[in-house]
Task: inverse folding
């Protein structure tokens, strides 16, 4: 079945450091890939997405490129801020034969803490 | 439009009791999903509605769980004879049309079974 694997956390960085959170996936069909973020005390929010190979999703300085050859969708940001402290989830949805209805399969999440 | 809302936000119940949660999706969204999230894990899919029809259920959804979406608007998730293992955050999400559309999540209902 479909699965998503994220790098183990938590991740602790100083402000303005470079961020990479690794995400790899296994899926049938041609998945869409997502990064969701959960800030403390808030619900899940879509951060960015990519729907086909080589697409780059970007938002709020974060980027991720859909790499079909390596089945990866790593999240990057050049300079993190304290306000980026949150839990980040990589996820996929497939529409294999039109039967999966877009349900999301999530990774286990990566806790990011950014210190001033 | 205020987004997806869920009620209650927190529920504490004793083992063996029944509980019901409500989700109000974004008004023009015809797809509605329920997920369950336990501590330190990502959300896991439970069930999916397109309008009022429940089209998919996860094997995680035991016979004690039932979900409805009458008239294709709000949805309810009921758990009968709760067990301590049911303690989790229950998340609702909605989306507009196709399987590639973004899902918008509610704040969740945190269930604690004592």
Result:
């Amino acid at each position: 079945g479909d699965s998503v694997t994220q790098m183990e956390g938590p991740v602790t960085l100083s402000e303005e450091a470079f961020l990479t959170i690794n995400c790899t996936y296994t899926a049938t069909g041609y998945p869409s890939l997502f990064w969701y973020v959960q800030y403390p005390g808030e619900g899940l929010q879509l951060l960015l997405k990519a729907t086909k190979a080589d697409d780059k999703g970007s938002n709020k300085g974060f980027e991720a490129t859909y790499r079909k050859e390596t089945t990866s969708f790593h999240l990057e940001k050049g300079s993190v801020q304290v306000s980026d402290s949150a839990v980040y989830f990589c996820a996929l949805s497939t529409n294999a034969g039109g039967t999966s209805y877009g349900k999301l399969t999530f990774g286990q999440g990566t806790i990011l803490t950014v210190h001033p | 439009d205020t987004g997806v809302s869920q009620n209650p936000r927190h529920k504490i119940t004793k083992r063996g009791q029944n509980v019901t949660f409500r989700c109000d999706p974004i008004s023009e969204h015809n797809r509605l999903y329920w997920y369950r999230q336990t501590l330190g894990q990502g959300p896991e899919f439970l069930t999916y509605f397109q309008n009022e029809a429940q089209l998919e259920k996860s094997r995680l959804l035991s016979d004690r769980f039932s979900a409805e979406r009458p008239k294709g608007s709000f949805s309810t998730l009921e758990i009968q004879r709760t067990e301590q293992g049911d303690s989790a955050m229950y998340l609702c999400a909605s989306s507009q049309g196709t399987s590639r559309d973004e899902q918008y999540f509610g704040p969740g209902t945190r269930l604690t079974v004592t």
In short: The mean pLDDT of chain B is 92. Chain B is about 0% helix and 50% strand. Chain B touches chain A at residues 4, 31, 33, 35, 40-45, 48, 50, 55-56, 91, 93, 95, 98-108 (CB under 8 Å).
